[in-house]
Design brief:
The complex is a heterotrimer of chains A (about 475), B (about 240) and C (about 210). Chain A has about 475 residues and is α/β, with parallel strands linked by helices. In chain A, about 50% of the residues lie in helices and about 10% in strands. In chain A, α3 crosses α12. With about 240 residues, chain B is of the alpha/beta class. Helix content of chain B is about 50%, strand content about 10%. Chain B contains 13 helices and 8 strands. In chain B, the strands form 2 sheets. A 4-stranded parallel sheet of chain B has the order 2-1-3-4, with helices on both faces. In chain B, α12 links the parallel β7 and β8. In chain B, α5 packs antiparallel against α6 and α11 packs across α12. The radius of gyration of chain B is 18 Å and the shape is globular. With about 210 residues, chain C is an alpha/beta fold. Classes of the chains: A alpha/beta (about 475), B alpha/beta (about 240), C alpha/beta (about 210). Chains in contact: A-B, A-C. The interface between A and C is large, with 91 and 68 residues. β9 of chain A pairs antiparallel with β9 of chain C.
Chain lengths: ~475, ~240, ~210
């Protein structure tokens, strides 16, 4: 079954957003975090004289790759296999989890150390492993915080962004049995280092995602900051990598573009601390049993729609989340999906063939800040509109809205009808108007007046004024 | 020059003063203005909400209504963005070669009001006087779609007596977003509240913008809070103080 | 052949339909970004140094005949006395008064009790302060520069390029690659950048050659 975390069961965005808006701590944390990254990004992007050219190249490489996706996947499989890797294919979330469990069992492993990958959240891997009696250990600081706090990620790159230091301290105190911990970030990081070190040196199966799967060499590239990624892909004897099929890039050389735009967009750094690239098995260095699980789980569904297939260009930098004024108000949980913010609003429903998460394409004022920030130039506002069109064409729009839109279209069909509608509206507002303001309007307009004043419709429209002026002989 | 006004459906109905101000400014500069009364709406609301067939019908009507107009001016960045960014795509997708051709001919003749003044008419001083402190909200369509840059600001700075005060987070969306304001009213209101707060922080007496949709949102929020800041379209300020 | 593999490829091909020649399409990708460097070698080294120091890494310049002495001085100042040595590191670099342990004599668990590691590198990128290891003989297996808390890397002036594209071009062709841009870090706690979570918390670069 195709699964995107728990998105299929999530409440609609307006409902979840209202809840999030009531959480002042969350909103403060989200605002602070996104402001910081936005500021840092602006500096390191501003110093690049060829930023727009890099974006153009990044976009073109991804569009090219998607256009020839079958070729590049075949090439990757061939080269990875030749280097001693085992390549597996998972049509959906359940199959991916099954493959991982089978590999673990065949290798006689019961525990794994994991480096951050949204793809495993997508398939619900941890739950499946635990149900099979296997133990996954998250090792990214934020994912460790989420795991120990039994929480859910709220941002693609900084998943615990919604928690502050005190909340994190409390989680660590409980889970690590360290009552003496203070909330100093340095101390919390040191506690995580100590807690995880033992696992890195002992647990003999590693699990990762991939930022890039390089077709011409058959290599995997993992981009990270903390060093836990290097631990997980280097120290165990067995390594399993789960990667969405859209992550493939044509050539090693193409990293010259992506490694420049990814770090600057994601964390506002010139380069992230560590990138790890490995190709199948290297005797004497690192895992001697290397598996790559290529995942579909709805990606080929996204491919079917030419108008929105560009969604697959995403390199998961989350610059769009940081730029989005809606995300800034609500944080990620309100989207009900591990993929939140602008990219989440277009990716989540499409992975599920528009069966679920239908409120997400409307969770946007179409301001365009995401498109401006996107390093691969995905026209997110255009895709949001296209998805809205798909929902309307499928009969998914609420009846009230369809009726209002039909009425408006009818009113706009001719000047006579528009003039009549204007007059009718002026009459109809009379019971709601007081001192030039309208209040207690019927739905859906009550959604406006609940929060904002609304001035009454002026007694004379522009066209009426013009007509009067013409009759009086012009200027 | 003869300038054909596209007043936009919501300005026609809710903000007639903006249209009157545009007429006043253009006539003061010595140009003739026509208003083709057949016009109604550019189709943006339908397009953005996913009702593409309705939007296309409105596009076809717009093309008919403005057939032959040399210079079309609309005091709305969002409507001009609709025409410039989306009409060509919709026309191409229609498969109607004649429509496609007519749209391609028409689109370059459509100007947003501040674009028209600065780029086509070559003026920044329109002879206005407005001795008040004003802050300018740069709407999303004006900065991102049309890339108007500082054209509205330059026009305001040339107004006699006007003190232009910098708005913090000017490029942050006000939260209107068309049907978004109603479908996601809580988030929209929260975004509007942040924008209103920034406006009040400037201490300006007036908040200006090149779109009345933003002013509807910002003004509605300010009024709800009892803030005395007035919201005016840039055109209304440019029309002020010329003795009439 | 896996059923899923066939199904996935079937869906991909149905979605994409007929396409023109792939190679032409790849060559048509616009690459108007900066490929080569623009600054002179001295400026390049200075840029590299400033980037590493920005990450709180140490940079120590020396001439080609002062490598061992410089390394000894740096290690003394850091109070590092037991280091693992990548197999291909020239013995001439290894000053006395430090215990040098051969890579071959260390299992991963042993590395945990060692002060640090000494390696060379394949290429270094000035614009981003990046050291690139391809894990050949003078760089050691990956665990060497991962488990110990300290890494001393010897970089030669002619190994330093300015731009990322130049660095990637020189780094091609090896099955393993690690790029290091400063010590490990996280900003997961209230966006406060904390240095050193896993991986070496201290990095020193001995930069050989170029002006004194």
């Amino acid at each position: 079954m195709i699964r995107v975390g728990r998105a299929a069961e999530a409440p609609p965005f307006p409902v979840a957003a209202k809840r999030a808006l009531g959480n002042a701590q969350l909103r403060r944390n989200v605002r602070h975090a996104t402001n910081v990254i936005r500021g840092k990004r602006a500096v390191v992007v501003g110093e690049m004289p060829d930023w727009e050219q890099l974006r153009d190249a990044a976009h073109a490489i991804k569009e090219h790759t998607v256009r020839y996706l079958d070729f590049y996947l075949e090439q990757f499989e061939e080269n990875c296999t030749r280097a001693g890797g085992s390549v597996h294919w998972a049509a959906d979330a359940d199959e991916a989890n099954r493959i991982v469990i089978d590999i673990m069992r065949a290798a006689g492993r019961t525990e794994m150390i994991k480096v951050k990958t949204m793809t495993s959240d997508e398939t619900g891997l941890n739950r499946a492993l635990e149900a099979a009696g296997l133990v996954p250990h998250e090792t990214d600081l934020a994912d460790l915080i989420i795991q120990l706090g039994e929480d859910r990620p709220s941002h693609i790159v900084v998943p615990a962004l919604h928690l502050n230091r005190t909340e994190i301290r409390d989680i660590f105190r409980g889970a690590m049995n360290r009552a003496e911990l203070t909330d100093r970030p340095e101390e919390l990081a040191a506690a995580a280092r100590q807690f995880l070190r033992e696992k890195f040196l002992r647990v003999d199966a590693g699990f990762s995602g991939a930022n890039f799967a390089i077709a011409d060499s058959g290599s995997i590239c993992v981009v990270e900051s903390e060093g836990n990624g290097r631990m997980c892909v280097t120290l165990p004897r067995v390594l399993i990598t789960l990667v969405g099929v859209e992550k493939v890039i044509p050539r090693f050389q193409d990293l010259e573009v992506f490694l420049q735009v990814l770090a600057r967009s994601a964390t506002g750094e010139r380069m992230n601390p560590y990138n790890s690239i490995w190709t199948g098995v290297t005797p004497g260095d690192g895992p001697q049993e290397v598996h790559v699980v290529l995942l579909d789980n709805g990606r080929t569904a996204v491919l079917q729609d030419e108008a929105s297939r560009e969604t697959l260009d995403c390199i998961r930098c989350a610059a769009c989340l940081n730029a989005c004024p809606v995300y800034q108000q609500t944080g990620g949980h309100a989207y009900g999906s591990i993929y939140s913010g602008p990219i989440g609003a277009i990716l989540t429903p499409q992975l599920q063939s528009m069966e679920h998460s239908r409120s997400l394409p409307y969770a946007s004022s179409l301001c365009g800040a995401c498109y401006e920030a996107c390093p691969v130039k995905i026209d997110i506002p255009e895709i949001l509109i296209h998805l809205r069109e798909r929902l309307v064409d499928a009969g998914e729009a609420p009846a009230g809205e369809r009726w209002s839109m039909k009425a408006a279209a009818a009113a706009f069909a001719s000047e006579r009808r528009l003039g009549a509608a204007q007059k009718a509206a002026r009459l109809a507002q009379w019971p709601f108007a007081r001192h030039g303001q309208l209040s207690h309007l019927p739905p859906p307009l009550n959604a406006w007046t609940e929060h904002r004043a609304l001035a009454a419709i002026p007694p004379q429209s522009f066209r009426e004024w013009w007509a009067t002026r013409e009759r009086a002989g012009g200027a | 020059m003869l300038i054909s006004l596209f007043i936009t459906c919501y300005k026609d109905t809710l903000f007639p003063d903006t249209g009157k101000a545009v007429v006043r400014v253009l006539e003061r500069l010595g140009h003739r203005v026509e208003f083709r009364s057949a016009q109604t709406c550019c189709g943006q609301m339908h397009y953005n909400t996913g009702y593409t067939a309705d939007a296309r019908a409105l596009m076809e009507k717009f093309v008919r209504d403005f057939d032959g107009a040399e210079t079309i001016c609309a005091p709305s960045a969002s409507c001009v963005a609709m025409i410039r960014d989306h009409y060509p795509k919709m026309a191409a997708a229609s498969g109607d070669a004649g429509l496609h051709r007519r749209v391609d001919e028409l689109v370059p003749r459509v100007f947003e009001f501040t674009e028209l003044l600065v780029d086509k008419l070559g003026v920044t001083d329109v002879g206005a006087s407005f001795p008040h402190a004003v802050t300018l909200h740069t709407s999303c369509h004006s900065i991102r779609s049309l890339q108007l840059g500082d054209r509205p600001a330059r026009l305001l700075r040339a107004v006699r007596g006007l003190e232009l005060r910098e708005l913090a987070d000017a490029d942050q969306c006000c939260g209107f977003g068309g049907t978004f304001a109603v479908k996601n009213a809580d988030v929209s209101a929260a975004m509007g509240a942040d924008k209103a707060r920034r406006v009040v922080e400037t201490g300006a007496a007036v908040c200006a913008a090149a779109d009345n949709s933003c002013l509807l949102q910002i003004g509605g929020t300010l009024t709800q809070r009892g803030e005395p800041v007035r919201c005016l379209h840039v055109a209304e300020i440019l029309a002020a103080g010329d003795g009439r | 052949m896996s059923v899923s593999r066939e199904a996935i490829f079937g869906r991909i091909r149905r979605a994409l339909g007929d396409r023109p020649a792939r190679a032409n399409d790849y060559d048509a990708i616009p690459r108007a970004y900066r490929r080569g460097g623009a600054i002179d070698p001295d400026a390049r080294l200075a840029l590299f140094q400033s980037r590493i120091e920005h990450y709180d890494g140490g940079v120590h310049r020396c001439g080609a005949n002062a490598i061992a002495d410089t390394i000894a001085a740096v290690l003394a100042s850091r109070r590092k006395r037991r280091l693992v040595v990548a197999a291909g590191v020239p013995p001439a670099w290894l000053a006395p008064r430090v215990e040098w342990i051969a890579e071959a004599d260390t299992a991963n668990e042993d590395l945990d009790a060692i002060d640090g590691a000494i390696t060379g590198c394949s290429v270094a990128i000035a614009a981003t302060g990046t050291i690139v290891l391809r894990h050949g003989a003078s760089e050691g297996r990956r665990a060497l520069t991962l488990i110990p808390d300290y890494h001393l890397c010897v970089v030669f002036a002619d190994q330093v390029v300015e731009t990322v594209p130049e660095g990637i071009a020189r780094a091609q062709g090896a099955p393993l690659l690690t790029t290091i841009s400063g010590p490990s870090a996280t900003a997961d706690i209230e966006m406060t950048r904390i240095k050193g979570v896993h991986g070496p918390r201290t990095l020193d670069v001995v930069l050989v050659g170029g002006p004194p």
